[in-house]
Design a protein that fits this description.
Elements: E1 2-3, H1 11-18, E2 24-27, E3 30-33, H2 38-57, E4 62-63, E5 69-70, E6 84-88, E7 103-104, E8 110-116, H3 121-135, E9 139-144, H4 151-154, E10 161-168, E11 171-177, H5 195-198
Parallel strand pairs: 5-7, 8-9
Antiparallel strand pairs: 1-3, 2-3, 4-6, 6-8, 9-10, 10-11
């Protein structure tokens, strides 16, 4: 992830200039180049496929948008672009920007967010945990397929880790999974997934 030295942007300026460019996020007015790699995209694509299968099997009114921005707070110039987002189609009519652009501002519209870890692991494990909990997103997954996160987050020795955060009250509880362990999602109980299944070949 690279911090691009540019002038501070407002949320609306970011949408106008970079809304269609998948590699950028905005954090407190700073443009962030997320520098996605091929293996990173492979992992994200495989996860989206498995989630889509589980949604279809459970006949839920949810979907995974092709692109989507999350605005966690109306008073800050921040726009998150998660690797996978699951939206509840039944409540999108309440979203003030949805009809014009794929921007989500209300936590109740989001069922699940997935971040695939790259060099920005600090943001995924710290700031986004807080932002997504404050929005009220029921589940947040961090897929650290290379074991990049700090020891305080994934333990020692560092190894590939899949963390499921579940919202209880206003805070997340977490469960971690390693290779060969079946992953349990309270949101998608029929999901059959192991970290091994989504690693890049």
């Amino acid at each position: 992830m690279t911090y691009t030295p540019t002038k501070t942007l407002t949320f609306d300026e970011f949408i106008a200039q970079y809304g269609d460019e998948f590699r950028y996020e905005l954090a407190d007015g700073e443009l962030i180049d997320m520098e996605p790699t091929g293996p990173h995209e492979a992992v994200g694509g495989k996860i989206a496929t498995q989630i889509g299968i589980a949604i279809a099997q459970q006949r839920l009114p949810w979907f995974i948008p092709r692109t989507c921005l999350i605005r966690p707070f109306s008073d800050t110039a921040t726009a998150r672009r998660p690797d996978v987002v699951v939206l509840d189609e039944t409540v999108l009519s309440s979203e003030p920007r949805w009809e014009q652009e794929p921007v989500i501002t209300l936590g109740r519209s989001i069922k699940l967010v997935v971040e695939v870890v790259s060099t920005n692991w600090e943001t995924d494990y710290a700031r986004k945990v807080e932002e997504y909990a404050l929005l009220g997103i029921p589940e947040y997954w961090i897929v650290d397929y290379r074991g990049l996160g700090g020891i305080a987050f994934i333990g020692k020795p560092k190894q590939p880790t899949f963390t499921v955060y579940q919202l209880e009250g206003e805070e997340y509880t977490q469960q971690q999974y390693r290779l060969r362990q079946p992953i349990h999602s309270p949101l998608l109980p029929q999901l059959q997934l192991r970290l091994d299944d989504i690693l890049p070949r």
